[in-house]
Amino acid sequence: PWPRGRGLGGSSNVNYMIYNRGNPSDYNRWAEITGDERWSWKNVLRFFLKMEDYYGFWDGNGFHNKGGPLRIEPVRYAPGIEYVLAAGEEIGLPTRDANTIVQTPGISPIDFTQERGYRFSTYRAYIQPNENRPNFRISRYSQVVKILFDESMRAVGVNFLKHGVPQTVGARREIILSAGTMGSAQLLMLSGIGPKEHLVELGIKPLLNLPVGDNLQDHVVTYVGPFLLNKEGTSYLAERDLGMGAIFDYIKNGNGPLSTPLGATMFAFISTQFTDPSWADLFWSMQNVGVHQNLGDNLDALFNTRGNLFQNYLKPHVGQDAHYSLQILGLPKSVGKMRLPDANPDSLPILDPKYYSDPGGQDMKTMLEGIEIMLRLYENTTALGGVLGAHLSPRKIPGCENHEHRVLGTRGLRVADSSIMPRVVNANTNAPSIMIGEHCAEMVKHTWGLQHDEL
User: Fold this and answer.
1) Residue-number span of the structural domain to which 84 is assigned
2) Angle ∠(257,263,264) on CA atoms, nearest 5
3) The Glucose-methanol-choline oxidoreductase N-terminal domain covers which part of the protein (predicted)?
4) Distance CA 372, CA 271 (A)
């Protein structure tokens, strides 16, 4: 199963809060695919700056902004980080900001969408400050199940369920769909927009034959570790470090291990032989987490593994300081698809990401090369040589939206979420998704000649 954030603020309520913009080349490729320079890095950068209220690790370097709605702060708890950053310098992974105008390989302490160690979701950033505006109404406990169109294919309203009771609301100007990668595609298909044969099979009247649900791309993740350390205090061990003092410190000051999601402290961009050095095809989320008693259970849940795989693998090392990393394929070549099992809006979509299915096998080769680089970082550097006690334990939808977010063949309907990415960016998708929302807002204002306070 793929997790989804079903609530005000969407998946920013359940993600790991890592703030990364992606690579400038990601957006220049979007501009090339769409034929629209408004998607180029030069243009979208201003939306990233607009949304930032940046107090992160790289505050003051000239590449960030303050005063926007989204609070960004640095990691507050990172035991052993100095050893890894020093080791990175040894092998050509210097400590650098990944969110500048040039992104070359390196490691950075993580910036989080947090305020004083607490989650700062898009609900806190955008919705909560505007809840009392007279032109803004939230219908809680509601689920949209269908978009309604007139004879000219103008979107004129939606059917939705509120506490399970069917209701309808109309639209005078536009409908903006922002239900996420899976939710938006599912709702379009339920409304008759999608692959014609598939819709007919489900008994849904096809209105537009578009490749909705195709071009599904995902950042496949693999666990690498644990790298066992012989220096006490170089990682987080729950049994040792999570006492009442740490809990009170978090409640009062927002500091300590509870402020660090999943123990993530550093973020690395890695360029393998298969990409341009300035366009990383891998990224690492580096966890300074020792082998505490529940780590195996946590990883089994995270990766949805069976048979207590991680629990059995890590059991011999419980109680030891360690680090591990989640290696993520940033520029996947493999492309999957999403389909519906039936016409019931409550049914989960059928997802076939087709991991590692690219004809040349480049995705797998890229991941293997990344693991070799990580082994070199932890096992063949002097900075970590003194603390490494043992080596690695031996145990979107192109063609369905135009460049102004509009769904092709319709009027008055836009999509503003990660489902419109023609190619996935090489970083966590939270910040790019927020940028897409800012981008769409400008398009809407331009269309209707609105000023900021008229939205």
Assistant:
1) 74-112+216-392
2) 130
3) 5-28
4) 12
Single-letter code of the amino acid located at 166: P
CA angle (173, 179, 182) in 5-degree steps: 135
Which tokens go with 27? 């957006």
Q: Where are the alpha helices (DSSP H) in 8-130?
A: 24-34, 41-51, 81-90, 122
How far does Cα 190 stand from its chain's mean position? 25
Task: Tell me how far apart the alpha carbons of residues 202 and 227 are, in angstroms, rounded to a whole number.
Answer: 50
Listed range (239-253, 312-326, 354-368, 399-413) with the worst mean pLDDT = 399-413
What are the distances in angstroms from CA 342 to CA 18, 183, 200, 350, 396? 35, 14, 11, 10, 21
- Which residue carries 């509009």 as its tokens? 406
- Contact residues for 296 (Cβ-Cβ < 8 A; gap 6+): 308, 310, 311, 312, 313, 314, 315
The CATH number given to whatever domain includes residue 232 is 3.30.560.10
Work out how many domains the chain is built from and give that number: 1
Residue 453 pLDDT exceeds 70: no
Helix (H, G, I), strand (E, B) or coil at 92: coil
CA of residue 316 relative to chain centroid, distance: 33
Q: Please indicate, yes or no, if residue 326 is contained in any of the structural domains.
A: yes
Q: Given strand 155-162, what is the order of strands in its sheet?
A: 142-149, 155-162, 165-170
> At 399, is the pLDDT very low, low, confident or very high (cuts 50, 70, 90)?
very low
Is residue 426 one of the residues assigned to a domain?
Answer: no
| DSSP for residue 126 | I
Contacts of residue 201, Cβ cutoff 8 Å, sequence gap at least 6: none
Specify the residue for token string 């366009």.
279
How would you class 35 by CB atoms within 10 Å of its CB: exposed for 0-12, middle for 13-18, buried for 19 or more?
exposed
Q: Are 211 and 400 in contact (CB under 8 A)?
A: yes
pLDDT tens track for 380-394: 998 887 676 645 545
Question: Is residue 196's pLDDT more than 90?
Answer: yes
Q: 134 lies in a domain? A: no
Asked if the structure places residue 368 within a domain, the reply is yes
Residues 253, 117: contact at Cβ < 8 Å? yes
Is there a binding annotation on residue 424? no
Q: Give the residues across from 107 on adjacent strands.
A: 95, 268
Q: How far apart are CA 27 and CA 435, in angstroms?
A: 11
Per-chain mean pLDDT for the chain:
93
